[in-house]
Design goal:
- With 286 residues, the chain is mostly helical.
- The chain has one domain.
- Helix 7 packs antiparallel against helix 14.
């Protein structure tokens, strides 16, 4: 493997640990979501604060509003996806939340007027079929599993909104200032949701806080940081194809850590979802 691919492979491994660390933390989903992004923001702040203080004041009122809305969408993504892991399998949750690129294209069409090719439409149809197969398998396991599936899809929708809303801001702000802004807003959103839901953010054992810190460091700062680095050296479709390894990696880790074996329906639906995403990513090369 060429050296340029090694950081990307390591990024996939780091990101794959996210769902495992969520499960191991054994804390309320909203608390896990809050501390993941809060700790990440605190660790990023010393490196991004200067850039943020220089660039944020020059933003237009509209751009500031978009920054806040983008951060709220990111907070809702973490709230819904992390909650899904309390109801359904790691495999089903990670597969469904990885349909984000399809929703991003759909929202780009609706809100930005961007065209959608027939290949993309076909990929969307495949993804829906795969999600349907996963839902059929989870139907037999009860309403809780279906609730988890819906929460994972909600995580994909909110993440895609975060991407679409923040697209213009990435050009208006330095990357570190943009990330710090949306992460801090997401943390504030999750703190507010925790307060509204009467979810305590204190009183957990030291082991839980260490796992939450690991969640901020390994998949969030480490994994996504390496993805951003890889985008500088590799074309977007190549990065996208590598990132399809996350559901596979997370499923393998879930087997070793929790002895969780995906159902035949989940495996079949997962194969269809992954095929749709491969079709989507490879179409970007054209």
């Amino acid at each position: 493997m060429k050296a340029v691919y090694l950081p990307l492979a390591l990024a996939v491994l780091c990101i794959s640990t996210g769902s495992i660390l969520v499960r191991m933390a054994s804390a309320a989903p909203l608390a896990v979501a809050f501390y993941r992004i809060f700790f990440a923001s605190v660790l990023l702040a010393p490196f991004a604060a200067g850039s943020a203080l220089r660039s944020w004041p020059s933003l237009s009122p509209r751009a500031r509003g978009l920054l806040l809305v983008s951060g709220v969408a990111l907070g809702l993504h973490f709230a819904t996806w992390i909650a899904s892991l309390s109801y359904t399998s790691v495999a089903a949750s990670v597969l469904l939340v990885n349909t984000t690129p399809l929703f991003t294209l759909a929202f780009s069409r609706v809100f930005l007027g961007e065209g959608v090719s027939p290949v993309v439409v076909a990929a969307m149809g495949l993804a829906l079929a795969g999600a349907g197969l996963i839902a059929i398998g989870d139907w037999a396991q009860g309403a809780n599993s279906l609730t988890g599936d819906l929460l994972a899809l909600a995580g994909a929708v909110t993440m895609s909104l975060y991407h679409v809303i923040g697209r213009g801001l990435r050009a208006a702000l330095p990357l570190d200032a943009y990330i710090l802004g949306v992460w801090a807003t997401a943390a504030a959103t999750l703190a507010g949701l925790s307060l509204a839901a009467q979810v305590s953010l204190a009183g957990y054992p030291p082991r839980t806080y260490l796992l939450l810190l690991a969640l901020a460091v390994v998949p969030t700062l480490g994994g996504h940081g390496l993805v951003n680095r890889s985008h500088r050296h590799l074309p977007a479709p190549t990065v996208g194809l590598f990132l399809l390894g996350e559901p596979v990696g997370a499923t393998i880790l879930a087997y070793f850590f929790f002895h969780e074996v995906p159902s035949a329906w989940t495996l079949a639906g997962g194969a269809v979802v992954l095929a749709s995403l491969v079709l989507l990513v490879t179409a970007e090369k054209g």
